[in-house]
Queue: 2 jobs
Job 1
Amino acid sequence: MSDSKPGDLLTKQQVEDAYGVLKNVVKHTPLEYSAYLSQKFNSQVYLKREDLQQVRSFKIRGAYYAIYNTPAEVRKRGIVCASAGNHAQGVAWTAHQLDIPAVIFMPTTTPNQKVDQVKFFGQENATIKLVGDTFDAAQTAAFEYCHEHELTFIPPFDDLHTMAGQGSLAVEIFDDAKKEDLNIDALISPVGGGGLISGVSAYTKAVSPNTQVIGAEPAGSASMDLAFKSGHPATLATIDKFVDGAAVKTVGELTYENAKAYVDGLVTVPEGQICTTILDLYSKSAVVAEPAGALSVAALPGLRPKIAGKTVVCLISGGNNDINRMQEIQERSLIYEGKQLYFLVNFPQRPGALKYFVNHVLQDGDDINRFEYTKRVNRGKGPVLIGVQLGKLSNHGPLVQNLAEFDPEYLNLADNLSLFDMLV
Ligand SMILES: Cc1ncc(COP(=O)(O)O)c(C=O)c1O
């Protein structure tokens, strides 16, 4: 862990030093032109493919460099980290390479795919502890463990070595851009705790001051945005944990200072938009991006006028997507697009009622994909949770009109998020 303190700004030299070490350890990932996204957004879009990194995310960079900078005799005793999954994989991979013990704390909500990968990369060197619901809870437990056992904590983002390590990917981007004579107008980076964007922006502003560095945060955990508005890191009361790599309640002190100094703007992206982007990246470009990994591309629709005609680099920061999450991703995407709807409807409990509903309420191509009585009643009518996937978006108007005739008291769960969370 570096002796970093609030107010310390990362320098180009520090990022280049990190690159000097990491270029012999990690993959130099490709900077790929995306013909599909370029056409879609009327600009030149390039993807920095950190999903192709050894541990399928950029996190190996900061983890390795922070551990590398820990004195050998200290790290031999053991290192500790807290992570939503990807930093853990970087730490586990490094612990195995350097043959040192690592104790790794992850929230209980970490997708299984990530837990399994940590075991695989760390092998006998890694001990995993699943604690708490959020990254912040896992981190508190990790701090206590470090204190109790006098071990060294490897910070996931709020540390100059970690930030410099993450920034090494920007050295690769600008080296590759130079070879292709590319002038990068904008660089979009996901933001969780802020380590990646700190390293990337510090380097970018030193070598290409006119390149706009834009941070993309999930709408449900926009903690850097809150920090910018508050004038200091502040804690979000609740977060949506869906974008597990970037769902952080409080950004770091150092990452806040660096982002404030070097980042040109922040955008927040709805989780549903991120889901649509994951599916689009997969089907159109054969890129497997995890939610945080898709954030930068998911930010493009919101930046459309700003990037028209420009050269834009999006950081695909990770590809550790648990296949078991695909159904949820598809569902959230459909809901966001307005194609999947959920209603609570008083349904007559008599033969033929469902047939009537299908023939008189639904439109051509609409499909019922959920039908559940939510409580048993003997009054001839019972509340039913109905999921409808629309045949086409224009079916929405006639459907809700018919529904109002069928049951004037029906509820559209999109208008009642607590009910939605309870029932769907
Ligand atoms: C895939 C991925 N993207 C982005 C981030 C956010 O990085 P940072 O916390 O450095 O802002 C993370 C963090 O774990 C991640 O795993």
Job 2
Amino acid sequence: MSEEVKTQTDQPWFAQGLAFECTRCGACCTGEPGFVWVTDDELKQIAVFLGQPIAEVRDLYSRKARGKRTLREQANGDCVFYDRKKGCTIYPVRPPQCRTWPFWESNVETPEDWKRTCEVCPGSGKGEVIPVEEISRRLKVIKM
Ligand code: SF4
């Protein structure tokens, strides 16, 4: 966790936890193009889940960007694995970036960052309170 996330008492500003309960609205999987980073190992898990050869999954559903690999998008900008009727079609093996949303440093660095996140994600700020320990664990999974 970066120093900015912590207060002077060494406790993050969200020491009491933050509420989050995904509504499955799909806003974070659709719309404007972005990057969903995946490693070869993660692509392998997706391939096993889909029952397709790894090379095929890698070529069909991911592309190179900034020296790494990211999931491809559909023509409308939706994630290649997002189905507007069914939702995420690889949910059990979705990449860590999706798994840890909205608990990325960029989203919780300050209360203002969290407020901005709540404005774009209807599940953020509502529902179950996620304890600080779990938020801190998710923050360490991927730097976003
Ligand atoms: S934007 Fe938030 S509520 Fe909607 S699918 Fe993504 S995580 Fe869930």
